[in-house]
Amino acid sequence: MNRQFQAGFAAIALLLAQPLAAAQTGGRSDSPSTREAFLKRIGRVRLPLASETKDVEEKDGLTQTHFSFVAQGGQRVPGIAVKASARDGRRPVVIALHGTGGNKEGQLPLLKELARLGFLGVAIDGRHHGERAKTGKGSEEYVAAILRAYRTGAEQPFLYDTVLDVMRLLDYLETRADVDAERIGMIGFSKGGMETYLTAAVDPRVAAAVPCIGVQSFDWALKNNAWQSRAETFQAALNSAARDAAVAQLDADFVRAFYDRVAPGVYTQFDGPAMLPLIAPRPLLVINGEADARTPLPGLMECDARARAAYRKARAEEKYELLIQPRTGHAVTPAARQAALAWFVKWLRP
């Protein structure tokens, strides 16, 4: 194990000092039926990809291309792929998912670093972000879409639609001559971290996953009045929904009702403690901040307990790690970033 990898994992020693009992999960299931229910929820379908590639750029020994493909309902998903120009043949892939208000271009420094390590680095714009938004940046259109979902139920922009797009991205990557489809990893940040663990839970084509500052228990946060920080990422939609419902004071009961309309199951059947175990026995590194109010530590530890039990049952304990960044909020430290890269090198072998 190299020094960077060791440094990145030093923070794991800060895990809770006392052993954790298995978390109580309100009847949630780790069975394949959870996967089937989630795939039904997001409306998984297979359409012609109609993929396109353009804007090939060669610079500093790297080849960068812009691609797009069809997801569903007329949606085209735009993406960027970066690889080392001198290397031929198939190579492992790491998909990087941005957070709320971000875009695929924001992942370019990471994609280039991955390419220099021997990967094909890939990023797409999530729904209502980047090229899929009129402004090309920010979260205004995304939040507006969440409000539409609350009012009409016609779309699922909070997490679920982008998970579907990532599954279509996996379909697309399988068609590329430079991709080893048996070695596809995912990393995501905040919103992208949630989308990473949800996708990995239901799609076995994800060979290794690193959800960053996204793993959480929505249920724990609601039961313990710790939902506010997560709600801030779509606060305008939540406020408008409350006005629609003539609710004067936001509380956990209204937030539950809101989730039931915009992301059904997110705090029950598809919550973190239920979905994380479905990734076993594939390599999973979870990165969170010790002081991150958006992913409260006690809820995270419920996820951890369930995941550890699943990896023990699969006799794959070495393929699961939790890295808690000390004295860190909603951010990824340089040491944690290096640990993530080392995780992909270890398990995907570029």
Overview features:
single chain, 350 residues, alpha/beta, nine-stranded mixed sheet, 13 helices, globular
**Overall body shape:** globular
- Average per-residue pLDDT, rounded, comes to 91
Give the low-confidence spans: 1-29
Series of secondary-structure elements, N-terminal to C-terminal: HHEEEEHEHHEHEHHHHHEHEH
Number of strands: 9
Helix fraction bin: 25-40%
Spatial strand arrangement across the major sheet: 1-2-3-5-4-6-7-8-9
C-alpha Rg, in Å?
19 Å
Distance between the termini: 16 Å
The helix-and-strand class reads alpha/beta
Number of helices: 13
How much strand?
Answer: 15-25%
Describe the biggest sheet?
Answer: 9 strands, mixed
Describe it.
The chain is α/β, with parallel strands linked by helices and 350 residues long. The chain has helices at 3-9, 32-42, 108-116, 140-152, 160-173, 191-202, 218-223, 228-231, 235-244, 252-262, 272-275, 297-313, 334-348; strands at residues 52-59, 62-70, 76-84, 91-97, 120-124, 179-189, 208-212, 284-289, 320-325. The chain is built from 13 helices and nine strands. A nine-stranded mixed β-sheet has the order 1-2-3-5-4-6-7-8-9, with helices on both faces. Helix 1 (3-9) crosses helix 13 (334-348). The longest helix is centred in the last third of the chain and has 17 residues, at 297-313. Mean pLDDT is 91; it is low at 1-29.
